[in-house]
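User: quick one - fold this with nicotinamide-adenine-dinucleotide bound?
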Amino acid sequence: MTMQRRVSLLGATGSIGDSALDVIARHPDRYAVEALAAHRNAGRMAALCRRFRPALAAMLDPDAARTLGRDLAGAGLPTRVVAGAEGLLEAAASPAADTVLAAIVGAAGIGPTLAAARAGKRVLLANKEALVVGGGAFMRAARDGGATLLPIDSEHNALFQCLPADYAGDPARAGVRRLVLTASGGPFRTRPVAELAGVTPDEACAHPNWRMGRKISVDSATMMNKGLEVIEAHWLFGVPIVMIDVVLHPQSVVHSLVEYVDGSVLAQLGHPDMRTPIAQALAWPERIESGVARLDLARLASLSFEAPDRARFPCLGLAYDALAAGGTATVVLNAANEIAVAAFLAGRAPFPAIHATCAETLERMPARTVAALDDALEADAAARGVARGILKLPADAPGVAVTA
Ligand code: NAD
Ligand code: MG
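Assistant: Sure. Structure tokens for the protein plus nicotinamide-adenine-dinucleotide:
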């Protein structure tokens, strides 16, 4: 009989939250929901509380927390409702939870994700932005806290599965020559570049293979998502930038590959369905059913690969340059991107302004050393201000797309 794990789900009302709860619901003997946390969708949160009966529910928005509290009390549920940034931290570090799924979108996820890492949890990491901002400081906090970091971003989960089980952040020792991240190319892979100035948020969010939240969907359309993932892979696996490549693979079946010095290339394959990496990380080192359909290779018939077009996807190059510059550069890039993507989704900026804003913010803010996490958080706030200025947005314009 396996021990029952108690899971705290940060970003419970989102796309990753959905996939995770679907897997959890298939294994009530193995997993119970200890805490749920989200931004402000009280209605969705109430429905989740009725179904999963967590001990704790956290909402960032205080009004949403009040609405939720009334609703749950009326229904006679025992769930305790907490609010604000403090409430999120409580859900992240709840002593009764051993596993924390970090799936808040954007740099807003860094506080709770860090709290879970410091508390020594098994952290299932979806929130790449927190790692891009936190970088080495985040990795050290996780190590010092005794946390187990398990990536569920599909590419990093694939790399994790293709690396040796005892991989300890030393590629040379493991005989690793190169990490290859696959990228679908998103909805605009073949769209004439001249038309990109006129694309709408809905077109940018219509990903050919994955159904995801709107922020990461836009990042996939610009390929900034892959850029952030290169940075994420660098920190997670201790691999230098020159050993991380990106290849376009429109079918999204091969989720990433590890090349070894002997010429072997190991890949992980599966349908593009986040329940696979989530189930892998939830059960690791065991395996559980995820509900994902079996892969029928004969039916797929062919898988194709091509080099990414750097002119069509300039954000990818920007991310490589920022990682090479080091220090605050990746933080600045991520912050400017969050502001620009939110502006695009709100109809306040055209699609090409995302790259232009990121490039200009980086130009105006030369890279500085990050000695501690505070340096990164300062650069994050400053870059948001610069990006808002470039886009002529009000000083309080939201940083991530309005979320549930
Ligand atoms: P989403 O927009 O569908 O959901 C975001 C969740 O975060 C919601 O529950 C929302 O309430 C919550 N949230 C947003 N801002 C918050 C805040 N300030 N405080 C507290 N909660 C907040 O996004 P998603 O697609 O589920 O993505 C979540 C994260 O996972 C992102 O970092 C994304 O890059 C990463 N990720 C997602 C996928 C995917 O398939 N969706 C794949 C890989 C990685
Ligand atoms: Mg990914």
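One thing worth noting: The CA atoms of residues 202 and 345 lie 8 Å apart.
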